[in-house]
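Complex record, two chains
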Amino acid sequence: MDRLLKIIFQSLKAVRAFKLRTLFCLLSVALGIASISVIVAATEGAYKKALEIVAMFGPDALLVFGGGEEARATGQRMKTITLDDIETARQAFFSAYVVVPMTAMREVTVSHRDKKYQTLIVGSTSDYSRAWTWPVVQGSDFTEEDVKGLRNVGLIGQFLSRELFGDIDPVGKYVLVRRIPVQIVGVLSERGTTPAGDRLDDRMIIPITTLMRKLQNETTYVSGLRIRFYDQKNLDFHAEEVRAFLRGRHRIPEGEPDDFTIISPKEIIKFLVALTGSLVVFLGVTGVISLVIAGFVLANLFLLSVRERTREIGIRRAAGARKRDILFQFLGEAVVITTLGGIFGLALALLSSKLLMYIAQFPIYFSWKAFAVGMILSWAVGIGFGLQPANRAANLKPIEAIRG
Amino acid sequence: MPLCLMENIRKTFHTGAIDVEVLKNINLRLERSEFVAIMGTSGSGKTTLMNIIGCLDTPTSGRYVLADKEVSHLSDDELSVIRNEHIGFVFQNFYLLPYATVLENVLLPTLYVDKQKDNREKQAVDLLHLVGLKERIRFKPNQLSGGEQQRVAIARALVNDPTLLLADEPTGQLDSNTAEEIMNLLREMNTRGKTVLVITHDQNVAAYAQRTVKIKDGTIIE
């Protein structure tokens, strides 16, 4: 043990002595390790983000939109769900604690004094905040009376609030939604951006009745409904119940496709994983390639080094070094360099992921996993690609080595 | 028992189709605390003989006993241990590690000792005092003169307290004054009880030895 420690100490000295070799090996390993640990962190980040979004969405919630799978694929949304459907569902599903209608309009011009902004207007009942677990941080949610009375009140997202009001508290102020004046009664908490780049805080919530009658001239149909169940474990089962219920109400004969789409948290995760998957594959391929290249750079520079230091090996052998002492020394040099490369690579990964998050809004999360994978890979490269040169060094014949 | 006993040592190299017999029937005795010179011209086989005496190489046939141990057929690892314990090498071109300090160079053989003694470093420093380099301990080899480098090499050869100090043309790269100093140093080590074997083609170097063995065409002629 003592002997091995001394040999490793010799490795450290050589790493310091042969600076150029160290630098080249270190850099190439660092690049490989950096890209691979970014991937690990990105995968983890995507997963974490997915869970966060599911938590936002509600792990116990289903979302039902009008229009079947085909309509969704082409981006159209058909209005097939009625307020009546929702009212009946509310009474039918005892296992659900929230059943709310949803309807929304995109790119509606909202203005306050001389400031104009095109935003998303969401219609909801007074349960919006509870249905979406989206707390109101200033002011308060609108009430059932507001919904029944088609009152012109609304909740505002923080992004939209900043666009229209700057730093001024918007609660109590009026905005014009198209031509209709609406009083802001509350501000929603900040939610940030989706992985797809949508600003969640760029929106306004008004009573669904107000939206339908005054903006859409609509009395029956809504875009969809949201339903939350007490026992999230049986969500798949509840989804089937909802499907059967709506098919029954819409009188869809057996064999015909649904005229609505149910979205569950599982599907959201699937979607997010697919979104980040392509980037992960790209980075993964480049990462593996660069790590293999790093390995070859290392192996070649070490072979060169062994040739250059043949006499050193001879001197050590004459002084009593065994084959394995030489092997461990050179292997030690390789592992020390790749360890340094790994550490450097992880630092690089941290830096580049900061940049990536900043420009691409891509969720990256560094945990011990990324570090562990980075370190283990760098040791693997050190041992894997350092072994052959180290073996060659160890197997030089002393009398030939000492001649140089 | 003598320190070294060689009986009927032969060494044959296979170079392509031809076998070259470099050593033919060598018989050699080396007593403890002797100072012996092996003389021969280049191509006489003296380097091969030194390699075998120094356990860097094994004979094709014959018997070689070093310090009461038959070493002619030991494995590579076993020979490494013998070299580490019993042989101190001094080479013509000094062969110091360029990236290590004087002290680190002297300590090199102690790295490969299994049973570590404590005061290795003190011993190395003492040896450097003895060879007159106490001011140069932290220097790198390229900051030293040839004579100083050879002194470092001698200190390195002695650090594990070997039974045999083996010097191959130790003055070959040095001017005559420095050569004299180095040879005097080797003689001093001999008077302190170390067995010294010098391989040389130089009559002046051989003159320091108590006894000279002459080798020609792979056989001892005198």
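Note: Chain B touches chain A through 29 residues (CB under 8 Å).
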